[in-house]
TrEMBL record:
Domain cGMP-dependent protein kinase interacting: from-to ranges: 59-159
UniProt GO MF annotations: enzyme inhibitor activity; phosphatase regulator activity; protein kinase binding
Identification of the protein by name: cGMP-dependent protein kinase interacting domain-containing protein
Keyword ATP-binding recorded: no
Cellular component aspect of the GO annotation: cytoplasm
Segments of this protein annotated with the region Disordered: 1-58
Keyword Iron-sulfur: no
Keywords: ANK repeat, Repeat
């Protein structure tokens, strides 16, 4: 077992040195996702170097596919969040407009009260004028009657 562990550590070092070749080596992306990643034991046990290369390629493909699925999920979540944000903005705008209307409402009520008072004063003035007009009509009628009576008296006196 001692010699087997020594071989494993040599292969592990070789894999790490292969991973550290950089982004151009094709394994840089995966290395950046899991820097302490080691090659599976079954690859380490294979004697042929081609067997070890095929399994990491399959693992990279699987990792790539997993990342693609995760990216799609994240894109969907982002779209949902953007939709919710848009809906919340619209609701906020509606609430703001409603509050502005309510804020204007006391001013409108005060204006309505002022207008109502003005109309009530005008109505009171018109009632007074109407009363004065009826008094004037009554006086006018009385004067007409007196004038007619005077005309009759003058006409009797002149005969």
């Amino acid at each position: 077992t001692l010699s087997l562990q020594g071989e494993d550590s040599e292969e592990h070092e070789q894999v790490n040195s292969d991973d550290s070749l950089g982004p151009g080596s094709g394994s840089g992306h995966t290395n950046s996702l899991s820097p302490n990643r080691t090659v599976p034991r079954r690859c380490q046990r294979h004697n042929s170097p081609s067997g070890c290369r095929e399994e990491p390629e399959q693992e990279y493909k699987k990792l790539y596919d997993d990342l693609q699925v995760e990216n799609e999920k994240l894109k969907e979540q982002l779209q949902e969040a953007q939709l919710q944000l848009t809906q919340i903005k619209l609701e906020l705008e509606r609430v703001t407009q409603r509050q502005e209307r309510y804020a204007e409402r006391p001013a409108l009520l005060e204006l309505e009260r002022f207008e109502r008072r003005a109309l009530e004063r005008k109505a009171a003035e018109l009632e007074e004028e109407l009363k004065a007009l009826s008094d004037l009509k009554a006086d006018n009628q009385r004067l007409k009657d007196e004038n007619a009576a005077l005309i009759r008296v003058i006409s009797k006196l002149s005969k």
